[in-house]
């Protein structure tokens, strides 16, 4: 299994040999030395897997993971210097797929990476969703409607993907704030409303004349194949 890996690590003495060893194993490896450049690369280059060092010069790795998770479901392996159970649990809760405690070898990372990639390939979360004329591909993050590509922002994509994975079900705004915005509590319904209206416009429909996206007043929203909605 050959993968496109993004290594976010500021320490050259770790990074350089790791890149070399991973390339020897056939992986395509890109690297970033700061959290912000890593975040940008993760979004622009869409790697198969991110390896994230927690001690970065510009931002805490946990904060970066939180930001990454609001826009991307790319698998993440956290590289931590601390063999600290609390910290590891916190990272896994924050959306990390696995972790490695430093120092680790390229062989260990390679094995973990392959396991994470096998797991994520088998998850329903990466299956292409087809609902009526709507096609949502979470791997390429591309959407088409009746064969025509639809350009969505990362957030609009995640919102549509969440709804398209549950056709016919009413999804509450609370659930959307938690699952799509990753806001575990608080947050405003208005945020959801605004993004829904943008999404509707891009899908060529409106709240008054819905096709796929049906508002269920006071509850949330439901995605349905046109003509089958109640
Ligand atoms: Ca570091």
Short description:
With 230 residues, the chain is an alpha/beta fold.
Descriptive account of the structure:
The protein is α/β, with parallel strands linked by helices. The chain folds into 2 domains: 4-121, Response regulator (Rossmann fold, 3-Layer(aba) Sandwich); 129-223, Winged helix-like DNA-binding domain superfamily/Winged helix DNA-binding domain (Arc Repressor Mutant, subunit A, Orthogonal Bundle), CATH 1.10.10. 40% of the residues lie in helices and 21% in strands. The protein contains 8 helices and 12 strands. It has helices spanning 12-24, 35-45, 61-71, 85-93, 106-122, 154-164, 173-179, 189-202, and strands at 4-8, 28-32, 49-53, 76-80, 98-101, 129-131, 134-137, 142-145, 148-150, 170-172, 213-216, 220-223. Helix 2 (35-45) runs parallel beside helix 3 (61-71). The longest helix is centred in the middle third of the chain and has 17 residues, at 106-122. Bound molecules: calcium ion. Residues 10-11, 53, 55-56 line the site of calcium ion.
Based on the model shown, name its key terms:
230 residues, alpha/beta, Rossmann fold, Arc Repressor Mutant, subunit A, five-stranded parallel β-sheet, binds calcium ion
The strand count comes to 12
- How helix-rich are the residues, as a percent range? 40-55%
Spatial strand sequence of the major β-sheet: 2-1-3-4-5
Number of helices: 8
Ligands bound here? calcium ion
Taken as a percent bin, the fraction of beta residues is: 15-25%
CATH homologous superfamily identity of the largest domain: Response regulator
User: Which CATH architecture of the largest domain is right?
Assistant: 3-Layer(aba) Sandwich
The tally of structural domains comes to: 2
The third-level CATH topology of the largest domain is Rossmann fold
The helix/strand series, from N terminus to C terminus, equals EHEHEHEHEHEEEEHEHHEE
Largest sheet: 5 strands, parallel
Distance between the termini: 46 Å
CATH hierarchy, class of the largest domain = Alpha Beta
Radius of gyration: 19 Å
Pick out the low-confidence regions: none
Give the rounded overall mean pLDDT.
89
């Amino acid at each position: 299994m050959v993968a496109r890996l993004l290594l976010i690590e500021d320490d050259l003495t770790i990074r350089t040999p790791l890149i070399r060893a991973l390339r020897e194993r056939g992986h395509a490896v890109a690297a970033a030395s700061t959290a912000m450049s890593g975040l940008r690369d993760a979004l622009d280059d869409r790697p198969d897997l991110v390896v994230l060092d927690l001690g970065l010069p510009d931002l805490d790795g946990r904060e970066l993971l939180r930001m990454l998770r609001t826009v991307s479901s790319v698998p993440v392996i956290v590289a931590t210097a601390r063999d600290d159970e609390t910290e590891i649990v916190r990272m896994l809760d924050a959306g990390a797929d696995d972790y490695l405690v430093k120092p680790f070898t390229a062989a260990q990372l390679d094995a973990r990476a392959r396991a994470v990639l096998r797991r994520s390939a088998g998850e329903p979360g990466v299956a292409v969703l087809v609902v009526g004329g709507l096609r949502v591909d979470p791997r390429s993050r591309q959407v088409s409607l009746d064969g025509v590509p639809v350009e969505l922002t990362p957030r609009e994509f995640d919102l549509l993907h969440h709804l398209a994975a549950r056709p016919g079900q009413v999804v509450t705004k609370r659930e959307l704030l938690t699952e799509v915005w990753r806001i575990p509590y608080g947050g405003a319904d208005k945020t959801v409303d605004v993004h829904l209206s943008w999404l509707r416009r891009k899908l060529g429909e409106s709240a008054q004349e819905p096709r796929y996206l049906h508002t269920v007043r006071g509850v949330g929203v439901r995605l349905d194949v046109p003509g089958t909605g109640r």
